[in-house]
Structure formats: structure tokens, C-alpha cells
């Protein structure tokens, strides 16, 4: 849910108009719209490049994942891992666009640890993969854009840790 939606829903729940502070929050949110769109564009347009770089780094850290018997051994398993990396990158993009973590929580984080545990996927490895996605993504951005995007990656990493 975006900052605007949150303000409106809260005000409506309390049967009042938005406060000056809430309106200032909306104003600040709207003023960062161009930056949030630029970040989302960078992530979406560079998904293949980011996923390729991040997975390469992850396989260096955890070569056992792609070795015989590893969770990413074989074309099918590796493709599933890369698909998940792209999915998490999209979740981060949704957070950046909305200006909050609500879409990350509602669409993908709740229950993710349990799902990976039930499938025998090392959750720490998923956190490491998000760290690799973060580094690959932030390297494509200006310092200011990277500073804005970083907390969304950190939130996903924390949820997987």
C-alpha cells in the first residue's frame, strides 16, 4: 500500500481529514516519484544482467549449491533458483514504487521461510542470494538511488535471515 493510500485509509478510519503532517508525507512521497520510477526502471530493464551477476557471485560463495546433490544442481533446479531471484527483484521494485514494505510482505515474504524450509532449500542461502542481488543492483545506480533502494533489499534479507 502506498503512502497516499495509508494516509487516506487512516484518516477515513478516524473520520477526519488528513493532518498537515500527513499531507507533508504525501507531498514528500510525490516529490520522490521520478526517482522511484528511475530505480524501478533500472531494476526491471536490467533484471537479466542483475540475476546473472548475482547468481555468479552466489555460486562462488556456495559452490556446493551447483555441485551434484546441491539445490541448484541441474538445469531445472538452477532455472528455478534464477526464477526466484527475479521474483525477489520484482518484490523490491514493488516496495520502491510504493514507498513502503507492504507489497513485499503481502505478496511474497510472509511464509517464504517456511516454504523454503519445507522444500529443503537453505534459507541462509536465500538471504545470501538477496545480498548478491542487492550488490549487483546497487552497482547500476547512482549513490542517491542506491541509498533509496537499499532498505528494501535489506528488508528482504532480514526476512530470510
Would you write up a description of this structure?
The structure is a single chain. The chain is mainly α and 161 residues long. The protein folds into two domains: 1-31, no CATH class; 34-160, Phycocyanins (Globin-like, Orthogonal Bundle), CATH 1.10.490.20. Helices cover 78% and strands 0% of the residues. The radius of gyration is 18 Å and the shape is elongated.
At a glance:
With 161 residues, the chain is mostly helical.
Which labels suit this protein?
Globin-like, 161 residues, mainly alpha, 9 helices, single chain
- Give the % helix: over 70%
What's the total number of strands? 0
Number of domains: 2
Give the integer mean of the pLDDT values: 92
What is the topology?
Layout: H1 3-13, H2 20-31, H3 33-45, H4 47-61, H5 75-98, H6 102-109, H7 112-119, H8 123-138, H9 143-160
